[in-house]
Amino acid sequence: MKIRYIKQSYLDQLKRMSEEAKSQWYKQIHCWLNKFFNHEKWSAQSKIEIPGDIELVMEGNPPSTDLENSIKIYNALKGKLTEVQASDPRLWAYFCHETFWDYMSWRWPPDKSIDSRYFVDGSSSRALSRNGIARLWWFAHLTYDENRDNPYELTSIFLQHQDIQHNLIERNLGRSNTVLHAALDFLGSHPNINNKDDYVKLGKILNRLGGVRLLDCLTKKEIVDYLSTRYC
After folding, report:
1. How far apart are CA 89 and CA 82, in angstroms?
2. Would the pTM count as exceeding 0.70?
3. pLDDT, tens only, 69-92
């Protein structure tokens, strides 16, 4: 099937919806955009083709499904999207409101955070890491390592705790694969670093390193060695 996206003018209409209207429409059991716009011309088909339907896990504790669903999304879209395409708010809004509406209603009940979870609310890394579906693709994309026996080994470390995501991705450190992979390697070899305060400390140490050295010019080993001397 080919990926669809919400046309910009209709996306703008959705984002301008009043809080009162949101409380009505976002409680719908089924996809509702055809009814909301009174026609079916609000979306368009891209040239990006992906195989079949993607069935996301919707059972158990919602956060515990993030790893499996991240892998499902990334496997289906791997090699199909460029990072530029994967930053397009129109694509992720379609996925959230249409393709994966049932999942979104389950994982991110629309009683709050509609703007950040159902849309890409801004142009920063944080906006993509907050969107309910974009986050799954980006988390796997940034942590995938084809040179490992399990290419999603770092993804599993990354998704162990929301505070890891916050202190690496939302600080913009995570957009450098070398920095992110080094930090996750370090965490993987130090299981005693396992709570919010620890992850905040890790982010601050990396920020300090970035203040005196150009992080993109450092090797993964140099970053891991720095963390080992400053953290432990």
Report:
1. 14
2. yes
3. 999 999 999 999 999 999 999 999
